[in-house]
Amino acid sequence: DTEGDILVTVQNLLKHCLEPTSFLKPLAKLFSVVKNKLSRQLLCTVFQTLSDLDSGLKYITDVVKLNAFDQRHLDDINFDVRFSTFQTITSYIKEMQTVDVTYLIPVMHNCFYNLELGDMSLSDNASMCLMSIIKKLATLNVTEKEYREIIHRSLLEKLRKGLKSQTESVQQDYTTLLSCLIQTFPNQPEFKDLVQLTDCHDPEMDFFENMKHIQIHRRARALKKLAKQLMEGKIVLSSKSLQNYIMPYAMAPIFDEKMLKHENITIAATEVIGAICKHLSWSAYIYYLKHFIHVLQTGKTNQKLGVSLLVTVLEAFHFDHRTLEEQMRKIQNEESDTCCLLNIDTIEVTELPEHEPMESEHMDENKKENICESLSDSNEELGIPDPADCNGTSAKESECVMKSISFLPRNKEELERTIKNIQGTITGDIIPRLHKCLASKTKREEEHKLIKSKVVNDEEVVRVPLAFAMVKLMQSLPQEVMEANLPSILLKVCALLKNRAQEIRDIARSTLAKIIEDLGVHYLQYVLKELQTTLVRGYQVHVLTFTVYMLLQGLTNKLQLGDLDSCLDIMIEIFNHELFGAIAEEKEVKQILSKVMEARRSKSYDSYEILGKFVGKDQVTKLILPLKEILQNTTSLKMARKVHETLRRIIAGLIVNQEMTAESILLLSYGLVSENLPLLTEKEKNPAVPAPDPRLPPQSCLLLPPTPVRGGQKAVVSRKTNMHILIESGLRLLHLSLKTSKIKSSSERVLEMLDPFVSLLIDCLGSMDVKVITGALQCLIWVLRFLLPSIETKAEQLTKHLFLLLKDYAKLGAAKGQNFHLVVNCFKCVAILVKKVKSHRITEKQLHVLLAYAEEDIYDTSRQATAFGLLKAILSRKLLVPEIDDIMRKVSKLAISAQTEPVRVQCRQVFLKYILEYPLGDKLRPNLEFMLAQLNYEHETGRESVLEMITYLFDTFPQGLLHENCGMFFLPLCLMMVNDDSAMCKKMASMTIKSLLSKINLEKKDWLFDMVTTWFEAKKSLNRQLAALICGFFVESEGVTFERRLGTILPVIEKEIDPENFKDIMEEAEEKAADRLLFSFLILISKLIKECNIIRLTKPSKTLSKIWSHVHAHLRHPHNWVWLTAAQIFGLLFASCQPEDLIRKRTTKTTKKKLSGPVAVMFLTSDLDQMMKSISLASCHQLHSKFLDQSSGEQVVKNLLFVAKVLYLLESDSEDKQNEIKEMEEQALRDGMVREEVELEAGADEKVESDNAEVDEHSEPATLLWLIQKLSRIAKLEAAYSPRNPLKRTCIFKFLGAISMDLGVDKVKPYLPLIIAPLFRELNSTYSDQDPLLKNLSQEIIELLKKLVGLESFSLAFASVQKQANEKRAFRKKRKALEFVTNPDIAAKKKLKKHKNKSEAKKRKIEFLRPGYKAKRRKSHSLKDLAVVE
């Protein structure tokens, strides 16, 4: 109302003005400001009054037609009037000889308004109009004042605001304008540096093109690339450009809630903000820093993102004291060199005048207003109305104008002032702000503990990460600032670890880990002391251990060897207190575990492993000594086990430790195993009893001894009770170092040190502890691989020891628990001894014993692996004993019948090794027959195992043996192709047959092929199906050479695929068999096309012609395998010929010239029009199939694309084609509205009937327009009946996009409205939000069409489609309203149904929101209604 009153007042005042034309520009600017429809119409009236007062302005005031609305439908925009006005304006601009500012200003402001309406066609026209203005300015001799008026004050001012728009389409339109400005005025100071971001030749590399892309990951990639280039210095942009034109792209995704789910773009935007802040001047940087602190405090975005943004900006702090000091030194050096100073002065003096005139002119006209606007704009940008920053902003602007080489001043006094200002602001303002935020008490902390809520608020969690931000900032400042502020920050974070709320402890711990990671390991000791003094009692001790572990884990990437040596004592004390102190018992109390997450699992073991990784070589014993003392003094099994686990983890760390060389590990291991490690034995020496002091009197004999206590004296504990744990740890260290190749055979020194271990390990085999023996065996398995002198001398002794161990531990029922691992390793050791140690040969008696063990273990699932290793070792030495054949027979059976895959694999390997390497002679054939017999084994896994063996045999068998036995293998494998139930077995059998055919010679192939051809004559369809399959394998194996067999095969194929054979089949079983037979022959045809290229054959013409005719008939077959294969065959045919060749051959036929060529091509061209129509109808029929999937849909689209090209070329013969298309198109648009209504009202049955009716219409000629209409109808029906299933529409849209590209700019224009119609419908669909892929595809095709035909043609076509849709909507609405009068019963039923659906939806929503609630529903009376009442 207020706007209207003001405008009426202005209108009345204008009539009394002396110079009303002077108000044209201020009024014109309102066109981009006033949004309300009524106010806008009033503004148009006011604007038109100017032309009434001055008739010379008529051409300017006509611009108001850009706001035209439909007279009939008042809420609808009148697109026709607006488009024609845009065209008039564009043509006027193109003919303009001088710059008419008074005309351009209203046009531009109207364009700005149309850009923000959100309608694609209007915004496209508006942006095109603005671009034509920009390009025209470049061609005319524009003055500085006019340039500033049009570009700076009007366009750039709106452009900066437009780039910040949260509406994606608006931001993209302004991006197009910015890109146009940069390319049109590359030498203007405003755009000079932005030229680096554009690329005219490659849009993929253009930053602005990528930022307009529909795919979000492309935008994210462009932002990431820009951030990287800015950080690396490959692109250098001014502070002003970064703020005005780059920062909006980074800010938009962060504050857009829809974008938060796309993590990649938010991460990229954060990186760009960091890179921009890295290059800003001080005043601009501090502005953004305060802004992001404000964002975090007010919660404008989620906490995680807010913290990461603030941290990123703080990391970009580039005013650290080192840089400032360097700059100061540079200036002092430059002062000594006067010549250099003079050069710099001249550079600065020459740069300034370039900008000063432009600034001064602007200031003269509207100085005060501009300053206020710029300040308010910058405040709006940042969202912080902070008046204290006004000076900073003006300083920033002036600094941006003065594009100096560095962001720092080049004057000593000014630099000193800046340094003082920076440090003063950070220490006096920023750090106190962060301190205040960190230390502020929340409402929950002030509550009494009895009423305190257990739920942690977000505000408590938000403030903790600020500690890290503060530390990050202080690192860039002088050391004294860090020393003054760090203790209070660390103390606050440590105090937060005492909090009972788990969420707060977690965030405090992660913050502390980040702080220590950033500060470095030198601060670790200080932090540990702080933690040790803060976390002292109760649950806090659990928190302490857990936190220390987290700190160590965070530092692992930065730690160097020996870094932790200074903190070793504190950490060992903390970890041992948790593992072996009083606190260890608390970990068994369930109540503590349930309340304190940190107590649930001991992290001290993991911490010890980290210590082992980074401990210095000299400090290793510091870790082991306390543990040895515990072992010596304890009698508790639980404690001993804990020490054992700790040692295990320390050793795991030492293995990875780079400082622990092979020599160091061997020394430590030998010391632990032999129990004489020097540092460990020092404390064991008993101290000497001191001599009695002679000055003291002797003890009185009359003194009574103390009273004996109940229970007597405690038994003395042996110091060696738990020493086996140390020995085992030593063996583990040796074993792991051998296993991880830390100890290598290449070094002579290492081998010398390893040699004494042989006797030591053999001695360990006599130990009483099972784990020690197992450890020794594990080490021997590796040691025996080395060429050591001791192995040869001790081999006999070792063998005896091993057989004794097998005797004691491998007997029935003994190999359980720990003994099991001992037996397994013992067998492995024996296998290595047999296989590797050539100097020692085991006796025949020992071999018999081993085979007996192996035979026994084959059937024991837990010990099968060792048995196979042993058998392989025996087979590799080719030891001949009679028992080996019996064992191999059992192994072969197990290769088929074993339950698990690894066992079958092992059995196959052993059996094949036996068949291929042992001299078998006559025993070979029975073994092969056994394998073939297993092809009928009942279980699928067994059959697969046999096929694996046979395939391996074909690859490794000698050629002679293979030729001799190929027939024996061929038949069972062929039968398997049809008789087997498993698809996997059939696939493997086919691969095996192909492998066989590739290995045998031509003579054998012919013999096998003759056998296969006899199967074609069989009565059973299964035999013929098998013959077709095997023929396909011959085709794949022989390739082009198979052509010599075509004379035999082609007549058979023609006979078998004849559609007449499949007409009178009634029974379901017969129908299935017939379908499979037909599918097999069609697959054979496709193989013949690929391998033998039968498309190019000219003879036998009659047979081939019939084959193609039959395949064509099968395009409509009900079975989806059959029609898809037929479609693929036609796809191969279409791929081999060009549409132009078909048209040429057709024309030569019509001129009655004899033409010989390939039969397939002749078949197509015989009646090309009808053939193309038939194929297109069949393809449409295929799209209706309920078995349609993505791959079959793509095949149908490929075929339709070829057909469409041919149909278009067929039309091009007629001269009046264009007129015909236009007439047909108008007819289609007229009838479309009514026809679609009828279609959508019709049921599914009627739809099918109409399809069948259309199939029968052979009289109507097929054209491209007809095909597009038909496909559009299919898309519409799917959108109406099954909108959740987008498969058909996806296929059809891809077809529309592809045919548009193939037709090209001029040819596609007549078809444009028909192509756009289904795409427009999908873009406006309510279901597209649920599946955005289809909407994205539609949008991509729309963009493609826009680029292809140009904006003007596209806008007209799009507007016509839009208009038709609006008319249709209005018609539907009108008909619905009339229904209450014409058919009140139907209307009432629809209304009832609508209300019922609404209440059901409401009930469903309540049930979803309140689980357990069951809404009441009315009982159904459907059965009652069906009852017959007599």
Summed up, the helix count is 66
Q: Give the CA-CA distance, first to last residue.
A: 71 Å
Indicate the structural class. mainly alpha
Shape: flat
- Percent strand: under 5%
* CA gyration radius, whole angstroms: 44 Å
Considering DSSP H and I runs of 4 or more, what fraction of the residues is helical? over 70%
Largest sheet: none
Structural notes for this entry:
This protein is mostly helical. It is 71% helix and 0% strand. It is built from 66 helices and no strands. Helix 42 (883-897) runs antiparallel to helix 43 (901-917). The longest helix is centred in the N-terminal third of the chain and has 45 residues, at 338-382.
Concise account of the structure shown:
It is built from 66 helices and no strands.
Q: How is the secondary structure organized here?
A:
Blueprint lengths: L1 H13 L9 H6 L7 H17 L4 H4 L17 H17 L5 H15 L4 H20 L4 H20 L4 H17 L22 H5 L4 H17 L6 H16 L8 H15 L4 H17 L4 H13 L5 H16 L1 H45 L7 H12 L10 H28 L3 H4 L11 H5 L3 H9 L4 H18 L5 H18 L4 H11 L4 H17 L12 H13 L2 H4 L3 H6 L8 H11 L5 H14 L3 H20 L5 H13 L3 H4 L41 H17 L8 H17 L5 H14 L5 H21 L8 H19 L7 H15 L5 H13 L6 H15 L3 H17 L6 H10 L6 H17 L2 H21 L3 H17 L2 H14 L5 H18 L7 H11 L11 H25 L8 H13 L6 H17 L2 H12 L8 H7 L2 H16 L6 H22 L5 H25 L2 H13 L7 H18 L5 H22 L3 H12 L8 H18 L1 H32 L1 H26 L12 H5 L4
Helix pairs in contact: 1-3, 5-7, 6-7, 6-8, 7-9, 7-64, 8-17, 11-13, 12-13, 13-15, 14-15, 14-18, 14-19, 15-22, 16-19, 17-18, 19-22, 22-23, 22-24, 23-24, 23-25, 24-26, 26-27, 26-30, 27-30, 30-32, 31-32, 32-35, 33-35, 33-36, 35-37, 36-37, 36-38, 37-39, 38-39, 39-41, 40-41, 40-42, 41-43, 42-43, ...
